[in-house]
Amino acid sequence: MAICTRLFQIALLLAVPTAALPVQGATELAQGAEIQGLVRHSKTRDPVKGALVVLTCPCLTAARETTTDDNGHYSFEGLPPGAYSVQVLAGQADVSKLLTLPARAKVRANFSVDPSNEFRRVVRVKSTPVRQGTAVGREVNIEEFRNVPTGSAHSREFTSVVESSSAGGVSLGGIREPSEPPNREGYAHLSESAFIDVGDHPLSTFSADVDTASYSNVRRFIGQGQLPPPDAVRIEELVNYFPYAYAPPVAGRPIAVHWEVAECPWSPGHVLARVGLQTRAIAAKDVPKRNLVFLIDVSGSMGEPDKLPLLQRSMMLLVDQLRSQDTVAIVVYAGASGVALPPTSGREKAKIRNAIAELTPDGSTNGAAGIREAYALARASFAKRGINRVILATDGDFNVGTTSEGDLTRLIERQRSSGVFLSVLGFGRGNVQDETMELLADKGNGNYAYIDSLHEARKVLVEQAGATLVTVAKDTKLQVEFNPEKVASYRLIGYENRKLADEDFDDDRKDAGDMGAGHSVTALYEVVPVGVASSATTHAKLRYQSERSSTAQAKAGEWMTVKVRSKPADASRSELQEVAMRGVPLAIADASEDLRFAAAVAQYGMLLRKSEHAGNASFADVARQAKAARGADTGGYRREFEDMVRDTMRLADRKID
Questions:
Q1: Which of 545, 589, 599, 627 has the highest local Cβ count within 10 Å?
Q2: Please, what are the domains in the chain?
Q3: What is the pLDDT of residues 360-389, one digit of tens each?
């Protein structure tokens, strides 16, 4: 079975011996935490030599790996605290453990495996000449790697074999550059929001968005050494990837509405307004029965290691979390569709794992037939007052059957009325049909996530496949009314494809985003106060209408009023909440860590999109601001963002050069 894709770069100069490569400092090792353990044969209990052990965590800039010694022992030292995934690969064995590592702790994780086949590590390599002084060497980009059974068909997809030494060195043999598949990735064009004159349009209306696919997709681009296309960058999804410290709603309210105003860090004189929504979390023991149907694309395009093989490893993480009352089914589709696993209780973990392991890619993609079959299976095992969800896992390449966007969305819209919602997991590169996958998730009352690593899979399928799948607020809409006495113009940052007509806010027939238990939504507005020059186009004088007159409330010092509409999960009528934002904007240094961090992420997105509104923002400022606002950083996601910004800075400088 393939292991998760990781993208990393190693500079190899022919004149430099392996011993000259930098090693981890003794001080760092002494101060860091440690993970160690033994890998034994599950039947003979003998130690397993040469098993590949892979360590992933958002607190690490890249995955770390080692192999077991003659006594089956492995260890990782000098580790920062964080949430880790440890995976062991030996033969057909593929087991993993999740653990939390406190600072300076020593944790032991032992494994039992059944290495029934000899495996080799296979990679895809690109090699280019580099010059350092008078020496000419090779810069080698190792793009993908996995364990592949000797003699298997999958091993023919690659061109080079890499052997790892116990000292961590790498030797390359038979390197030749493979041909890359044509890039067919599809992204919807996003026209960036301009500043809007309050006199012309005092209302801003949009749908809540809890998707996060754009962030992990951007991370994938940066990891493979290239800047993402601007349309792949949806700023609201970058901002909403991170957790924020919003208080839960009070009793009787489905959503808590939070707000904050501060100086805009990239545009002096402007104000940054943050609106935050938060639903109430539920305890793991209170999560209702889960009826999950995985609809898996097993077409030929899914054969790459960062597609179906990564999906299989991702699903294995979920299996460990299943309870006896949960049911899982698997429907596969390629040229035809079929049931690979009928609805099966979570107690039958071995049966579920075997069904996952037997999935193989083949054929073209008849997505529509699979969607129909998956919904039928979900309805047949429908859990009353439970979680009923079809989870579509694909690279988005729908090329057989119902392929038009209109037909697909109408199909999904008809199915959601049954109470079965649709979530979409995107995988891979070269074929990613981002626009289609996002649209299907939106129309299916679900969310869209992109899986670029096993750690992201853990976040989506383990941390978020419980309580957050419990929909508590359907069709969540926001409408902000700006006070013309305080605000000359405004700009909603991101949400370009989530905007609604103002009249849609009160229309309960109009679909909008859904929020699960414990979900949060963050929106940022850049506001130009009255008296500050604005780039917004003002309206022309009208012959038949006079200027609007201000109400008495406009003199009360309010910047804006935020209105939120949402429906309870089992209702068709929405409930309204309303809150006014007032007060003197804080200096950016005095704003909350959450606002400052969200502002840094928004600036990062604007720079990637080459926004004309980025002002004096720079990647260096983003890195500095993000580090200063890191806070407690549970899970290490903010630290990972800082590393990604630094990598982006190097790529941007290289592109300029």
A1: 599
A2: 8-173 (2.60.40.10), 196-282+472-599 (2.60.40.1230), 288-467 (3.40.50.410)
A3: 887 554 556 778 889 999 999 999 889 999
